[in-house]
Amino acid sequence: MNKKSVVLLSALALSVALAGCSGGGEPPAAAPAKQTAVSVEVGKVTRGSIEAEAGVVGTLAPNKSVQVAPKINGTIQSINLKIGQTVSKGQVLFTLDQKDIRDSIKQSQESYNVALANLKQAQSSSEQSVQQSESGVDQSKAALVQQQSSIDQAQNSIKDAESSLRDAQNNLNRTQQLFAAGAVSQTELEQAQTTARQAQSALDNAKLTLSTAQSSLESAQTTHQNSLKSLELARKSAGVDVAQASVEQSRSALETARSQLVDATVKAPMSGTISAVAGNVGQIVSSQSSVVTIANTNPILVKVNLSESEMMNVKVGSSVTVGIPSVEKRINAKVTAINSVMDQELKAYPVEISIENPSNTLKAGMVANVYIQSGAAEGLLIPQAAVSEKAGEKFVYIIEGTVAKQVKIQTGEESAEKVEVTEGLSEGQQIVVKGASMLTDGAQVTVVKK
After folding, report:
1. Domain residues of the chain, as ranges?
2. Cβ distance 108 to 100 under 8 Å?
3. Could you say which residues of the chain have pLDDT below 50?
4. In the CATH scheme, what is the code of domain 70-97+264-290?
5. Which run of H or of E encompasses 190?
6. Which of 430, 348, 356 is nearest to 397 (CA)?
């Protein structure tokens, strides 16, 4: 460097120094920039056990599901249903075309009226036949009584003839003895013999009369029995029976047709939500084809399969916690049913848990995590997402007002979702579970809801 350059540099340095000293003092310092609050989501330190928090995966299912099909074959006339629609028991779901059914009712009604008229006519004819048969029974009964009286008279005549015959025979015996002794004449003997013969003849006639009367009685009895049978047949007139059967048959056909008219309007057998609609207007359906499916999801069931070891901690009525990840809810519930027979394919026992679902927020098919209280020791638990790690040390951010404070922690057991904290936190403290990577100790935060 030459001498001239050195002089110029020296002058320049002096000028700069003088400029710095002029102006009456130092220039004002720039104002510090305002710190921006970091948006974070928070959770709370809870008490529980890692073993209980492991959870068993299950699915939500309706407590009852019904496939609705018509009772009769037909063509859908009207249907206005949508999946997810709520229906009440007894509400009309769809209707079938009713024209053919109404025509059938009209024809059945006409047939029924004709059958009633035929029955009335048959009954009238039967009444006349019954009256005639009853008159025949009365006549045969009178004849029977008369023949019985004739028998009684004949029996009395026989008694009288037998008595007369005994007297005549005794008189003949005495007269014969007297005649032999010469005490009576031949004429008196002949008179005695004639009287005895007449008495014997009278007895024979009386017996013949009795025999005739008995034959007449038997004939009268036969006639009376036939009259009774005729009356019975008249009262059980085949014509009336046939007419009555025709009435019953036509009445059954009419009732069937009327029942089909009722069945043409298909109503909901239970309250619930429409989960499937498989029919359209104009579609032909039968009793074998489901048109609508209704599911009742209040309460809704959680269906899980538990291993043998898990079954040791569960019974009907046991309290469990059900987590629904899709709606980020945890619900306390109770076990309502346990199958005592193992599912051989899954090698597990099917278990059902009932959850009240009045607003139908929970949907069938959602995944559920069932947390079973196993009796393991409890500790403080926080979500895995809340834990940060640096240089081998673990820490979380707790919320104090609007400030995030970094806190070092000691951890114990861990699961896929939870971490046990053995030192550094207290139950109920708010901790950052989302947004921690954007924080530093003392950072301003804005808590946002999930």
Report:
1. 38-50+379-447, 70-97+264-290, 102-249
2. no
3. 1-32
4. 2.40.50.100
5. helix 186-235
6. 430
Strand pairing report for 46-48 and 379-383: antiparallel
- Alpha carbon of residue 42 to chain centroid: 48
DSSP annotation string for 261-290:
HHHTEEE-SS-EEEEEE---TT-EE-TTS-
Q: Is 0.90 surpassed by the pTM of this model?
A: no
Contacts of residue 220, defined as CB under 8 A and 6 or more positions apart, other chains included, come to: 140, 143, 144, 146, 147
| pLDDT value of residue 412 | 87
Residues 6+ apart with CB under 8 A from 160: 206
Q: What is the pLDDT of residue 125?
A: 75
Distance CA 261, CA 288 (A): 19
Tokens of 404: 């995030």
Q: HSE-up of 229 (CA within 13 Å, CB side)?
A: 6
As a dihedral over the C-alpha atoms of residue 182, residue 185, residue 190, residue 193, rounded to 10 degrees, the angle is -40
Second-level CATH architecture of 38-50+379-447: Beta Barrel (2.40)
pLDDT of residue 15: 39
**Percent of the chain, pLDDT > 70?**
89
Annotate 204-240 with b (16+ C-beta within 10 A) or e (fewer). Answer: eebbebbeebeebbeebeebbeebeebbeebeebeeb
Closest CA to 325 of 3, 58, 6: 58
Answer whether 170's CB lies under 8 Å from 143's CB.
no
CATH architecture for segment(s) 102-249:
Orthogonal Bundle (1.10)
